[in-house]
Amino acid sequence: MSEVFGSGWSKVHEAKDNLDSGLWKLWVPADESRVVHFLTTEPVTYFQHTVRNAAGKWDSIICTQQDCPYCQQGERKSFVGSFLVLVRPHQSKGKEVGTRIRLYTPSMRVLNQLEKFPEDAEVEALDSVDIRISRTGAGTNTAYTLMPKPGKVTKEDDNVIKESLKVDSTDEKTLKELLVKFLQDDFEKVKARNTNLSTTEFAEESDEIPF
After folding, report:
1. What is the pTM of this model?
2. Distance (Å, rounded) from C-alpha 52 to C-alpha 58?
3. C-alpha to C-alpha distance for 103 and 208, rounded to whole angstroms
4. Is the N end or the C end of the chain the one with fewer CB atoms within 10 Å?
5. Which whole number is the average pLDDT over 85-114?
6. How much is the average pLDDT of 4-27?
């Protein structure tokens, strides 16, 4: 068969594995919260655009800066920083969601909160405890609060990280390098497709504008 079509149940299993292991962005719905544990403690920073795609949904797209068509169209860009986080089990749309690994990309306002968090919460570091991220409001009226909760990465959590990210080691250096690779790969894809104004490979978990 051609590269477009596949055949057999093995292709179904392969596709499911790819979906399950994909790196999705963490999204906190309005007036809800998520408990996370930071796996990387320093942000990988860059600018990004938040624009509607052809389907009318919001996409976050890395700004390539030079020859960026979104900048040329006058689209606002935001300074953001990405982390890898472990999201604790929670309810979503009436269903129980298990432990997941997500890409967390807050903007400057929350980055400032995160930088001050260890001192404000009187903990040693960002990854010393779990953190409850609570959101109120929507759009430009969105606000986040960060609350510490007792929590460490357990052996079960470690297995989830290794399986989800396909890594043998879960030390911060390895995970930071993996995060940078994810972002660099996405950056190259965005650059290659900018002439078509296509969207990022990272999937959003909501069609609401992601502030």
Report:
1. 0.81
2. 4
3. 17
4. N
5. 94
6. 64
Q: Let me know if residue 15 belongs to a domain.
A: no
Across the chain, mean pLDDT equals 86
| 3-state DSSP helix/strand/coil % of the chain, to nearest 5 | 35, 30, 40
Classify residue 146: in a domain, yes or no.
yes
Residue 183, pLDDT above cutoff 70: yes
- Could you give the count of Cα atoms lying within 13 Å of 23 in the half-sphere of its Cβ? 23
Diameter of the chain measured on Cα atoms? 60
Q: What span, in angstroms and rounded, lies between the C-alpha atoms of 150 and 143?
A: 23
Residue 31: CATH number of its domain: 3.90.198
For residue 194, what is the DSSP state? Answer: G
Top pLDDT among 54 and 11 is at 54
Sequence-distant (6+) residues with CB within 8 A of 121 are 129, 146, 147, 148
Tokens of 58: 């919001």
Mind listing the pLDDT tens digit for each residue in 197-209?
Answer: 544 444 455 544 4
- Say if residues 146 and 117 touch (Cβ distance below 8 Å): yes
